[in-house]
Amino acid sequence: MKRLFTAIQVKEENALLKFFEESFNLTIINNLIDFKERESPDNYLPFFMRGYSLPINRTFGGKVHQICCRISNDLGFSEKEIEFYVSNDSEFNSSSIFSSIPDKPHIVVINRGLIERVSTPELEFIIGHEIGHLIYHHSYVTRIIQYVYPTYENLPPILQKLYDVWSKLCEISADRVGLIACGNLEVAVRGLFKLSSGLDDKYFNLSFDNMVKIADQTYSEMHDHPSYVSASHPANPIRIKALLEFSKSRLWKHIGEKKSLVADKALESRMNEILYLIKKVPFDDQEETELLFMASAGLMLLSAHEDVKDEEYNYLINVLAQYIHWPPAYLEELNKNNLQAVMKRAAKKIRANFPQRARDLARQLFPIIVRDRKITNSEVEVFTKISTEELKIPFSEVADIFLGGIRELYQPFG
Ligand SMILES: [Zn+2]
Q1: What is the 164 CA–ligand 1 centroid distance (Å)?
Q2: What are phi and psi of 220, to 5 degrees?
């Protein structure tokens, strides 16, 4: 089973997980949190859950219990490994919490509002989806990131973007597990459709073909007018489109035929097109030009002294994250070109088409100089040259930007 789940996990999701693992050292922090949790068993989450939500277990029996047991069993979990709960919440939602302590169960919570409005097969899809999150350890990453940065707004911009993209990819991987659990594409798509409105079937008269048509239409509109939305879930048409593509893939066919599973390059390339819509990329000429200018000018400032300082590089990738979700790859690519010529071309375009942005861009570049708590003459020279000769900001204003920035950010020995 593990092989199957690895084969269907969205490739990029795993790559981002590795990035989080390495940059946070998730394992160490998680082990410490687990250790403290074992020390104070009173805080054990199921105690709270059992008191405030209804456990779906053998004693209560019923259809929902049967479905939970069947699906978790089908997906390779024993009865004791996952505890299911219904919470008295009218919102059309469900969630899961991964447990990394071996003798403590994972938790899946299904809201009353959802159970009341889905059919039995749709519930199978939803439970499968939640178990998918457990299989891929998704809430474990969230737990650590929220521990280190309890307030989302304090996450550095680059991590915000990556976390957003990662969360959306997780939903797509979990949807695939949901599809395996219910075994029926129409059921899965209908479940996703209900998610967008929370409404019961009786309000619509939607055939499967119509649902696909609506999702296709909305998807193409999104494709023609892309915009970046910071949210934990991808827009439903993207989820539906991703699931439809998956169901048409050779991989899905091989799963059905129980053949050995190998990488499906065609599916991956189709997914790249679809997933483009959940990533942050420059959407228009202005964003593209600003990205090119900030990246090339930023790299020139970084290399103004001999060794590139981590603090300065990290500042630059955080600035670039407003335009693109993974700036390091963009910088690496750019570094191979003639930086000065690239920067000059971009600055010229800014002067011609977006002159109102020049001062703000210079202000955003300035912190690179002082991030390492040192001002070197060569950095000042590069910054002044770019600002006055390329962005054509009068020297007097550049001096203001400089002095203002020093007051605010420069902390020698700080
Ligand atoms: Zn989910």
Answers
A1: 13
A2: -70, -35
Q: How far is the CA of 364 from the centre of ligand 1 (A)?
A: 37
CA-to-CA separations, 79 to 45, 82, 135, 139, in angstroms, rounded: 18, 6, 15, 20
Give the Å distance between the CA of 177 and the centre of ligand 1: 11
Percent of the chain at pLDDT exceeding 70: 97
Q: Are 273 and 219 in contact (CB under 8 A)?
A: no
Q: How far is the CA of 356 from the centre of ligand 1 (A)?
A: 42
Tens of pLDDT along 139-150? Answer: 889 999 999 999
Question: Same domain for 258 and 319?
Answer: no
- 224 plus 322 within the same structural domain: no
CA of 174 to the centre of ligand 1 (A): 6
User: Ligand 1 centroid vs 130 CA: distance in angstroms?
Assistant: 6
Ligand 1 center–CA 151 separation, angstroms = 21
Range of the domain at 370: 285-409
| 133 and 19 share one domain | yes
Task: Report the alpha-carbon angle 386-387-391, nearest 5.
Answer: 95
Position 414 in a domain: no
User: What are the residues whose beta carbon lies below 5 Å from ligand 1 (ion)?
Assistant: 171, 174
Condensed to tens digits (0 to 9), the pLDDT of residues 60-80 reads: 778 999 999 999 999 999 989
What does the DSSP 8-state code read for residue 97?
A: E
Range of 61-70, 170-179, 325-334 with top mean pLDDT = 170-179
Q: Is 331 a residue whose pLDDT tops 80?
A: yes
User: Which residues neighbour 351 within 8 Å (Cβ) at sequence distance 6 or greater?
Assistant: 358, 390, 391, 392
Contact 301, 379 (CB under 8 A): yes
| pTM assigned to the model | 0.87
